[in-house]
Each structure stands twice: as C-alpha cells, then as structure tokens.
Amino acid sequence: MFHDQNDDDDDDNDDNDDDDDDDDDDDDDDDDDDNDDDDYDDDGDDDDGDDDERDNDDDDDDDDDDDDDMMMMMIMMMMVMMMVMVMTMNVIMMMINVMIMMMKVMMMMMNVMMM
C-alpha cells in the first residue's frame, strides 16, 4: 500500500513534470512566436523608419521650398518697391518739369510786361 502511494506520487510527479514541460514548451513557443512577430513588427517599424526618413527628407525639401518661396517673395517685394520708387521719381520729375514750365511762362509774362 505504501508502494502504491509512491507510485501514485510518481505518477503525479510525472504528470506534473509533463505539465511543466508542456507549459515550458508552450511558453517558449509562444515567446518565440511573439518574438518573431516583434521582429517582424520591428522590421515593419524599420520600414516605417525609412519612410519617416523619407518624410524628413521631404520636410527638408519643404523647408528648402519655403526658403525658396521666401527668396522669391523678397525679390518680388524688392521689384515692387523699385517700381514704386521709379514711379514716384517719375511723378516728382513731372512735377519739377511742370514747375519749370510755369517758371518759363512767368518769365515770358515778365518779359511781356517789361516790354
């Protein structure tokens, strides 16, 4: 009877060992699968990282485009200011010409009066 109990214990131990082995194997397999999935996801993240790098390059290009746009805007503003300056100078010159013509007319009138 004592021997039977030992046999039962051995059976229980064997069962426990089997369970432990199965659990360990399952856990290992699950971990491996999870790790494989993680590695695959990491690869996907790496691909995403490449995409991010490309996005960053695009952002740099956007920055360059923004700088180019700023330069174009500044050049356009300079051109507009030059045009305004030229136009104002033309207006001022026209006014000066009108003043000179008026002075000439006044001189003629003075001459007529003196005669």
Describe this structure in words.
The protein has 115 residues and is an all-alpha fold. It has 1 helix and no strands. The protein has one helix at 2-114. The longest helix is centred in the middle third of the chain and has 113 residues, at 2-114. The radius of gyration is 48 Å and the shape is rod-shaped. 0% of the residues are buried.
Please provide a brief summary of the model.
The chain is mainly alpha-helical and 115 residues long.
What's the SSE blueprint?
Layout lengths: L1 H113 L1
Low-confidence stretches: none
**Could you say which overall geometry the principal axes of the C-alpha atoms support?**
rod-shaped
The helix tally amounts to: 1
Rg, please? 48 Å
- Tell me, rounded to a whole number, the average pLDDT: 73
Helix content: over 70%
How are helices and strands ordered from N to C? Answer: H
Kindly state the number of beta strands.
0
N- to C-terminal separation? 163 Å
Structural class: mainly alpha
Strand count, sense and closure of the main sheet? none
Strand content: under 5%
Transmembrane segments: 71-100
Keywords: Membrane, Transmembrane, Transmembrane helix
Region (Disordered): 1-68
